[in-house]
Design brief:
Its cofactor is Mg(2+). InterPro entries: NUDIX_hydrolase-like_dom_sf, NUDIX_hydrolase_dom, NudJ. Pfam families: NUDIX (PF00293). This protein has about 160 residues and is of the alpha+beta class. It has one domain (about 1-145): Nucleoside Triphosphate Pyrophosphohydrolase (Alpha-Beta Complex), CATH 3.90.79.10. Helix content is about 20%, strand content about 40%. The protein has helices at about 40-50, 110-115, 125-130; strands spanning about 1-5, 10, 10-20, 25, 30, 55-70, 75-90, 100-110. The chain is globular, with a radius of gyration of 16 Å.
Length: about 160
Amino acid sequence: MTVAAVIERGGRFLLVEEETADGLRLNQPAGHLDPGESLIRAVIRETLEETAHTFEPRALLGCYMGRSLSSRTGTDVTYVRFAFTGDLGSLDAGRQLDTGIVRTVWMSAEELRACTERHRTPLVMACVNDYLAGKRFALDALYTHPSALAAAVPLGAQP
């Protein structure tokens, strides 16, 4: 399961250029959940780690399912992405970007459509298209049971 932040300013979208097994690729700030973390906390953290900017989610853009097959390694992965949109906050200029992130870049939807071969996943464009179409869902559509935020309890053990 992954999260992604779709952030737009002045008709341009914030992306990261990252090293992958298939070379440099473009993606929204995105990543996996850490243990004990909600989807919203995860997208806030991932955006900070990959862009050095704070992020305040305002809406769920959608839930997406995709499949990725690495042309170099043959790795075949199916994943679910929860994409959020919201407000980009302040930059921590001294913060180092996450391992593998080369740089951040702002691109228009047209520029993104012109380089789909550089996208990490087809979901990059799907999320931008849904953003431009005005799709938004209230954050309270997401429910996180407290057990998801607690320390792991071994199967069969009494909490």
